[in-house]
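Researcher: Predict the fold of LytTR family transcriptional regulator.
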Amino acid sequence: MNQAFLNSTLRELQLFIRSPRFWTTFFLVVLIFVVSGPYGTLERMTIGVRLGYWLIVHAVTWAIAIVFSLAAEHLLRSRIASMFARMMIGSLIAALPIGFALGVIDYAFSGEWTEMDNGLHRALFALPLCALFCLLSWMTMHRQIALATDEAIVTPPASSSTDVQVEPEILARLKPQNRGALIRLSVEDHYTEVVTSRGRELVLLRFADALKELGTTPGLQVHRSHWVADAAVDRLKREKGKLFVVMKDGAEIPVSRPNLEITRARFGPA
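Model: Structure tokens for LytTR family transcriptional regulator follow.
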């Protein structure tokens, strides 16, 4: 596995860990299983034991399925267009290790292996849980994952100190006196406003094309009309229920709702 793959996967794992929506979904599912007591747990276990059992089962199975689904989401990106299909494939493949994990958990609670005494049967038993996980995770997290993917494509990792630093292509479009360290980009009608440490200038260029010319400058698209450079961000600010990125030059850039979690993960709490 290359470094880019590991970095991208870890970035998306952090999205799950930091997402209140994901954890709300997780605990609601656990509660449903505790109350309904499927697979005979309602008859075999008291409410306390059942809570512990399903909490452990879902924590372990979701963790395994997350890793496999995100790995498949990356590895199959060039072969399968649908993000949901890629994540589902990874989740279903995860049924094999999940089947083994379920056997260990059952043994810990009952002291004996259940009648599903081989890995294949346990994997088949785990398939519905894997499909359920994938569906719920995709419904709650697909926007954030897509944003993280776009960020990784648009803003590649900064090169090491031993690499040759390449000037972002977009600076060549500016007047010589305005060429400096990138601070932010913003949409202005059919133009893109480029703000640098030496000035600002409107460039007749689509915003999406401007983002492709950022080179290795670390930064984040926080809104469909705004990109900010990491080094130019001072802090986050919340005002009247809305989140803003406060730049070191005093400018306040709005953060759109789909970008809230990834912005907080990058720049810290408001």
